[in-house]
Design brief:
about 300 residues, alpha+beta, Cytidine Deaminase, domain 2, 2 domains, six-stranded mixed sheet, five-stranded mixed sheet, about 25% helix, globular
Length: about 300
Amino acid sequence: MVDWQFKSSDGKISIDDECVKLYERCMTHALLSHSNPKQSNYPVLSAGLTDANIFVRGGNVEYRMMGRGIHSEEALVSAAIQSGGKDAKLSLIAIISGTPGNIAMPCGNCRDLLKEYCTADAVIVCGAPVGGEASVIRLSSYFNDDFPEIKEFQFGIGAHNGLIEALCSERNAYHPCVPKEKMYGATIYCEPPGFSTNTFLSGHFAGDSAFHPVFPIRNAISALQNSNSSLKWYPAKVVVAQTGYKPAVPYIERQHLLEFECYLRKKHGRSSPIDVRLIETDIKGGVVHAWKTDSTEWIPYAFRPENLE
């Protein structure tokens, strides 16, 4: 039998004997699941307990089409719905992957999914298949939207702060099914040494009927990576804007920015997170509220792929 030592990583859960038995049972179910990571060779096994007290299982499945795959948590949620119907919720999830000291946490994509298909007090247990210390965390601790508000939104030269560019990209958003008022725009502000002017590279939401959209920050990162070779190493800030709402940036986008930061750390020795500004505007483009965060703060307990460390 695999031996895990369960630890409350956020300090919010009491690890008593009864809980340990339940965690071990869920982890054992996860070990019995199957995955097929054809490209990454990174298996992720999962199991979950539904609100109907039924255990279900999932595993990541990849296919050889330009890095595509089904995440373990996606398979798990699908299994829960097949078992309990469209209103089924998961109250406990076990994720088994990685190695002791470097276990996997849910990525941004899966956080968006679990937020919708788990109970409010759901618990996630993460551990390695060979045992060792296992992290026990409330699902709620994987999210962070409590950012300090800033009264004056300005950086760069003069009043030119990227807001216009972000709002332009918001207007260019497209999806055949998602209402446009739910979409935001994003731009990346670059500040390379020796450049006398500010440079902004923007991205817009580009949806499709297959529900595999390209998000604004990911689009802006692509524009940056295809830009002048010296420019791409110096993203200073990301500006995200939405008309009438505080930008609800999904966690898949936060993962995109975090992985880009990891890439910059590995390839160019970057030592700091990328600053983020979230802007709510009125219909005339005036700033109503602004908040600040960064590429690390807004995705707690982040999954950082080993090949990007």
